[in-house]
Automatic annotation (TrEMBL):
One of its GO terms (molecular function) is NAD binding. GO terms for cellular component: cytosol. CDD domains: GDH. The gene is GRHPR. Pfam families: 2-Hacid_dh (PF00389), 2-Hacid_dh_C (PF02826). It comes from Piliocolobus tephrosceles (Ugandan red Colobus). Residues 119-297 form the D-isomer specific 2-hydroxyacid dehydrogenase NAD-binding domain. This is Glyoxylate reductase/hydroxypyruvate reductase. Keywords: Oxidoreductase. Residues 31-327 form the D-isomer specific 2-hydroxyacid dehydrogenase catalytic domain. Belongs to the D-isomer specific 2-hydroxyacid dehydrogenase family.
Length: 330
């Protein structure tokens, strides 16, 4: 099997010192491992070479496993395990056609990602990066009544695009801030999940028009690609704050730039972009009212270690022909 070096680093961390915390089969001689020895993404040519003849592949969300990679792997490839909950980097139709099993890492990153979403929302709406910069550059001269005023959550309406595991965890954390009303949109109403927050199911245009804060937490699908576009931003309030922690392609970034630069919406916070990394000369990076993070939603030591263990156990179970702890049913 082939795997990235970052996984080995996690598996050799504190949790791996006790053999009971190691993946089943780890270090038992049951697998021959070829490893890409860098934290940087493996070049396509190297991945093609490394995966040739492999029975299993452990990949990251930065590795695009398409028909070309699957052809290079050949008929031996039986299982793909991804160190992510998102699977938009995998050619699922082609994978299903070849009878390859897929493991992924849902649930274990929900809390960390929800914490980051709330952190990003607060950082953006209270203009913290601007405030920090003013302290550093001497702009802080005295206390001023309206200087660096932002927007608060108390008595606000929060709209969540995608009330799945992460969307619910975000709402759960925002509720104690005094949010008055939760709205959500998605493929269908989820009354049982929404009941905890008294959240109302509305159309996407209604959510855009009525929300003071919008958090995008949906999966990337053909239906959600480009969902947040010019029409969406035009419906938003001028005082509204937009946050995306899902996937960059859910947002039309050119339209978002125009909305922010023109004052059509107040601010935006992004943990995901297209492409990743975002070029340093991208127009969004010139805006004070746009906070951009380098896709760190799940970046806590505990979460990444747990994800790594789950990904390794998914792979090993798949290679043995056993049920995976977390298998994506195709």
């Amino acid at each position: 099997m082939i795997m990235p070096s970052s996984l080995e680093t996690c598996l050799e961390g504190d949790g791996a010192k006790n053999d009971t915390h190691r993946p089943r089969g780890w270090g038992t001689g049951s697998c021959e491992v070829e490893q890409w020895d860098s934290d940087e993404p493996i070049p396509v040519k190297e991945l093609e070479r490394g995966v040739a003849g492999a029975h299993g592949l452990l990949c990251l969300l930065s590795d695009h496993v398409d028909k070309r990679i699957l052809d290079a792997a050949g008929a031996n490839l039986k299982v793909i395990s991804t160190l992510s909950v998102g699977v938009d980097h995998l050619a699922l139709d082609e994978i299903k056609k070849r009878g390859i099993r897929v493991g992924y890492t849902p649930d274990v990153l929900t809390d960390a990602t929800a914490e980051l979403a709330v952190s990003l929302l607060l950082t953006t709406c209270r203009r913290l990066p601007e405030a920090i910069e003013e302290v550093k550059n001497g702009g802080w001269t005295s206390w001023k009544p309206l200087w660096l005023c932002g927007y608060g959550l108390t008595q606000s309406t929060v709209g969540i695009v995608g009330l799945g595991r992460i969307g619910q965890a975000i709402a759960r954390r925002l509720k104690p801030f005094g949010v008055q009303r939760f709205l959500y949109t998605g493929r269908q109403p989820r009354p049982e999940e929404a009941a905890e927050f008294q959240a109302e199911f509305v159309s996407t245009p209604e959510l855009a028009a009525q929300s003071d804060f919008i958090v995008v937490a949906c999966s990337l699908t053909p239906a959600t690609k480009g969902l947040c576009n010019k029409d969406f931003f035009q419906k938003m309030k001028e005082t509204a704050v937009f946050v995306n922690i899902s996937r960059g392609d859910v947002v039309n970034q050119d339209d978002l730039y125009q909305a922010l630069a023109s004052g059509q919406i107040a601010a935006a916070g992004l943990d995901v972009t297209t492409p990743e990394p975002l070029p340093t000369n991208h127009p969004l990076l010139t805006l004070k009212n746009c906070v951009i993070l380098p896709h760190i939603g799940s970046a806590t030591h505990r979460t990444r270690n747990t994800m790594s263990m789950l990904a390794a156990n998914n792979l090993l179970a798949g290679l043995r022909g056993e049920p995976m702890p977390s298998e994506l049913m195709l």
